[in-house]
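> tool_call: predict_assembly(chains=two)
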Amino acid sequence: MYRIVCESYNNYIQDFSSDKDDYRNKVIGFLRLIININTYEEEKIKCSLDYRKLETFVYRLNKDQSNYSKVSSFLWSLESRGISGVDYNAMTEEEYEEAIKILKMFLNLTYWG
Amino acid sequence: MLELKKQLEDKIYDMEKVAQVFNVEPFELYLLGGSACVLGGYTVRATRDFDFIDLQYPANLGKVFVQLRDFDMLEYESTILSPRYRERARKLDIFNYIHVFILSVEDIIVSKIIRLGSKDIEDIDSLILQADKDLINQIIDEVLSREDLFQSKKKAFIEQLPRFKERYNV
């Protein structure tokens, strides 16, 4: 599902390209790091906020994955790329819940194509 | 369990209907995991999940795949598969529009070696009785020869191999 999430993320962001301050756009912005692993590595060195958010998100998703179908192969592909999650506690509960909602839309192919 | 098999078949029939309604060209689907085991009559494990290999499908197939409801599209580069899995896959002739294949018992077993969790062991215990062990060894070699498999996955697979070989005398 990794490829689907990447393509869906790009489609989703395009929908909000005219409103970069949109809340949901901001909430999911950290996912840009999974699209390009070089960017991920650069942000990792800087330990940027987006990097910490992604790691926190993946960490929590790993713990919660039994509650969400289709997540496991996505996480499996992230792990292949060296992204397995660290608990930086960098997301609020609200941000996490919102990000999950959007990820579920991606996994349900809502934004694919 | 026959009921479960029929439920899985019905979801694929729904997929076929939608594909035809939207004029989606027939395509191939290679199933592994629990749904393949049930549809192929390999095991009777209860599952409603469809796991299939991502053949770089175009996005217009999205409306077709959603008919499966619970599905995972597996990235080839992250999956323990031989490059020759398609040669050994069996076509399910009950479907007329979509070309549905299930992986061989041996390919499915090898795909499970990387985890070897209690559920995988339970599955392999059942599958190994109908498997060709020489073929399993051949598939393991084919997987190890892959250069397009993520190194992290290949490493994890190699680490589990001795445990698998010892348990199943392969």
